[in-house]
Recover the amino acids of this structure.
């Protein structure tokens, strides 16, 4: 027996199988149960959301041998014939291929005759907006005075192209785009039923790539299964779609936030080696900036440690600027000589309009440029300070500003505390809440900076602590909060400020800035 694609095999055969269209299903089910039947239904929505599927289900509901019902039996001859496309009283027409008025008149010539097999004659006209004006005129007369035994089910992706005279005679139902969450859950259900091993992130990527269409999602799932030889693997799905994960974009975003053009273009070149779809890469970048912007305004809303870290590396205004640049470049990408060049220009535009500093006004995580320049030079043994036995948090806070770290490596160091230190080894503590930001790459960068600072190979261990620890990050936040409190008190005591408050019934908002 030949293979049946998933989109056909798992096509819904009853209302309970429909995914993401609860409102439409509820209205139709209630109308069928109450026998409040209209003579013409119009289903609108983007491709692959279930327009013709729901029309076929209605045909079964109207003609099931158990009676008009919202839950057809799926076992009687009528239900089986409709599922197989062999029901004589269900006329399915593709208006895109039968646009002439002669085709429409030929179809409508049989309207007056009673049904052959079922209770109703059902005319399902797909892509009805493709009919010509003469065809619409021929259809209009039948819609005005239809026989009792005839039901029209019209489907279209572009209802604006239908004449208002047709629209006014139909009961309209709009089938919405299906959310990625609904699609991903359905794909997981299908993979379980088909006994297919599937990684959840891979299914999530397929759901997003489907852009609201469940049919497209099932087609992509078929491709992914073939690509990975019977499995659905995240890396293979990314390669198949030409998409990138947030992890892949982090080096690029970090370079942009550091205003490092050479490093940013190097990151783009590394992305290009994987031959991605740069339209999707730009969309992923836009999504990442969106998540960072939300985290900056409403802290601790993201479970992604990388997003939380990036939120501390730039001001909200900078992230908003980058988001807008990426959004406009996405629109202009089609006009570029090639996609990679257009993407590179988006990155260069971010760098060109980037503020001079990449640190935030609330959490300065990067060291001053003068300190970084000094720390970039390898220290000689004569210049080294002897390693002291005292390893307090204050000393660690001073030390990390001399390591020449930037970006996420600096953020990792700022959330650690110095536990122990000797001539060959340094041990840092990291709270369990910040464990997701720890990666082998960042640990390697931190270890290299420490070895470079002490001018000798140093082993680095980072231990996870279940208890809260005092870190330079917490110390910086405490110092900032104290400065903010003092500034508010000073503003409240200023007679000029108080006069403005009384005059305009205003409130005082204090903002700290860095230099």
């Amino acid at each position: 027996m030949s293979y049946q694609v998933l989109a056909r095999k798992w096509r819904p055969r009853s209302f309970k199988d429909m995914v993401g269209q609860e409102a439409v299903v509820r209205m139709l089910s209630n109308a069928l149960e109450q026998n409040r039947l209209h003579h013409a239904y119009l289903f609108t929505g983007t491709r692959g959301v279930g327009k013709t599927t729901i029309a076929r289900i209605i045909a079964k509901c109207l003609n099931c041998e158990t009676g008009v019902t919202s839950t057809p039996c799926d076992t009687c001859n009528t239900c089986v014939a409709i599922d197989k496309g062999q029901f004589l009283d269900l006329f399915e027409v593709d208006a895109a291929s039968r646009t002439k008025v002669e085709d429409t008149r030929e179809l409508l010539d049989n309207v007056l005759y009673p049904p052959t097999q079922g209770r109703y004659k059902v005319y399902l006209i797909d892509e009805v907006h493709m009919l010509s004006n003469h065809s619409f005129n021929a259809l209009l007369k039948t819609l005005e005075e239809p026989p009792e035994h005839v039901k029209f089910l019209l489907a279209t992706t572009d209802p604006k192209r239908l004449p208002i005279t047709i629209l006014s005679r139909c009961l309209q139902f709009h089938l919405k785009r299906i959310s990625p969450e609904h699609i991903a859950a359905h794909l997981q259900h299908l993979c379980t039923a088909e006994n297919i091993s599937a990684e959840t992130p891979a299914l999530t990527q397929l759901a997003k790539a489907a852009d609201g269409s469940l049919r497209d999602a099932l087609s992509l799932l078929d491709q992914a299964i073939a690509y990975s030889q019977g499995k659905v693997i995240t890396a293979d799905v990314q390669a198949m779609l030409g998409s990138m994960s947030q992890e892949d974009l982090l080096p690029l975003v970090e370079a942009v936030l550091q205003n490092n053009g050479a490093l940013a273009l190097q990151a783009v070149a590394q992305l290009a080696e994987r031959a991605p779809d740069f339209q999707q890469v730009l969309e992923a970048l836009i999504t990442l900036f969106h998540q960072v912007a939300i985290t900056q305004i409403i802290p601790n809303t993201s479970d992604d440690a990388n997003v939380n870290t990036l939120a501390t590396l730039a001001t909200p205004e900078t992230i908003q600027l980058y988001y807008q640049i990426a959004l406009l470049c996405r629109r202009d990408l089609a006009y570029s000589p090639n996609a990679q060049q257009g993407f590179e220009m988006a990155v260069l535009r971010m760098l060109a309009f980037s503020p001079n500093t990449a640190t935030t006004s609330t959490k300065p995580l990067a060291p001053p440029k003068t300190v970084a320049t000094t720390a970039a030079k390898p220290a000689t043994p004569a210049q080294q300070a002897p390693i002291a036995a005292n390893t307090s948090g204050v000393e660690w806070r001073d030390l990390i500003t001399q390591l020449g770290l930037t970006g996420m490596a600096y953020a990792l160091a700022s959330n650690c505390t110095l536990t122990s230190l000797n001539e060959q080894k340094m041990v840092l503590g990291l709270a369990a809440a910040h464990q997701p930001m720890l990666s082998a790459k960042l640990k390697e960068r931190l270890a290299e900076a420490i070895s470079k600072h002490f001018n000798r190979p140093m082993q680095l261990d980072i231990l996870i602590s279940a208890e809260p620890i005092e870190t330079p990050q917490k110390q910086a936040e405490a110092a900032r909060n104290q400065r903010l409190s003092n500034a508010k008190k000073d503003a409240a005591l200023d007679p000029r400020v108080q006069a403005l408050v009384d005059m305009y019934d205003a409130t005082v908002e204090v903002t700290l800035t860095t230099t």
